[in-house]
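Model: Ready when you are.
Researcher: Fold this.
Model:
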Amino acid sequence: MKRHYMTRNLSLIFIYVAVLSVSNVIAQTEKVERDYVERAKLTEDQEKEVISLAIKCGLKKPIVRISTHNMFPTPFRGIRVQGVEKINGREVTTQILSMSYSKWLEPGAKPSKSQTREGDFWAGKPYTQKKIILKIKGKEVRTSSIQGMTLEECEMILVKLLDGEYETGAQINKNLLQEVDWNKPSGFFKRGESLSIGFLHKVKDSGFFDLQISRKNDKIIIEQMFQAIP
């Protein structure tokens, strides 16, 4: 009789834990930010699977963002899951998990032995993304890397670029400059007198630009411009 009573209680505990886990995942989906490309939108049930898998893979709660992206030039798509940001002064660290969905990859695609699978989704371990905060006109802009420059120098140059206070060299395609997202600098790099700044394209997943810049007194001159197209 006692054994039957204990077994029944254990069963009720397992059911309670399972219901609690599902409730937590549902609560997570209500708070999460979504950023989906047109060809890669997740349903509510799929989002629950994605969040559940992300937690199993070691992404710390709360999950704050799920995004999808094109993997140009292939027709495949991918998923990124993001944890909460931690800010220490000007440095921002975030846990990121890249995730695969079998129906968005080549036929027969499977996870590796080191990856965790749930349904049609799989992933490895999360990594830590680090970014640096630049303060521009009362708002924050983030960049991945600064080398050979101070924060103040980067901010000064970025303000001039945002305001259009720059000159261009003879080789610059001014129409192409209209495609640059000045609010998304990927990095600032200086070696000697050589200065380059990376920016993302305004259209998501459409590559990035590398601008070679020179400075003469307070003037900013874009000497060369390279575009990386996926």
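Researcher: Now this one.
Model:
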Amino acid sequence: MSHPHSTRSFSLFGNPFRMKSHKDLELPVSVWDDKWVDVYFDISTKLLDICNAFSSELSRLNQGNLPLKCALHILEPASSKSFPRACSLLGDWRHHINAKNPRIEKCSTILDSLVGSLDLPKVKNSAKGKVLMQAMYGVKVETVFVCSVFSAAFSGTSKKLLDLDVPEMHSWAPAFRSLQNLVNEEIRDRFSSGKFSVLNEMEAVDAVVQELCPSIQGGVNTEDKVEQESHLKTVEELGAAAEKLSQGMDLLAKAVDGFFQAVLTSRDTLLSSLRFDKTVNDRVVGGRNIGQQVVY
């Protein structure tokens, strides 16, 4: 007899797949094969490592906002005396953004290991177990693909992209392949055209910075009203682009944190279920042993 706690639903890798994934599937944690549990914890541990790396990169990128904000602050008065300092700060921003994060570089190794273990354990004599493995495979493919896209975006190279080969036996294979080809081709085209980032907001800021730096290096005639207005307009564009970038980074950071928490919660729920089942089984076995004792 299974206890309600042992069939408790939990999110697989933070995705809306549940133990009772459709009306005909109800697979209590108590009947999970040890190999399934090991696979789940191995995958989820690696996903947590990737989340930590992404959070580290987003935090690093946000730190680049400081020189950008300082440059904007001293450029608003349009004083020629502040131009050299502003140009230096904008250069610092570009240098900071283009720097490499070792933790992101390590993501490729983690993703490669996940790809190498895409094929999950074979399931025998359990139709529901096979459905579970198929669901885990689908979620794993989707997650690895998304993570590889972010890894490429953060590392600034299309070499980090993965081209996953999903067998035709899966009904969703054609749709996934179409999406993967579309996204990967777009990213490769962007990098091959000389863009240093696939993040639109980052590119927008960089475009204004590249326009602004030469003009302030050449000097802006603050007594020329037209030239001054043009300069201030460019500064305003930079401020708007920087604000949009900051907001986008915040949203992305929240999404990564949400995914991290979802994976962590699902692991905790599974661990709790496994501990509960072990406790119940121990009590049942203990009770049977007591009942079978012979009293002399």
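Researcher: Key takeaway?
Model: The chain has one domain: 4-291.
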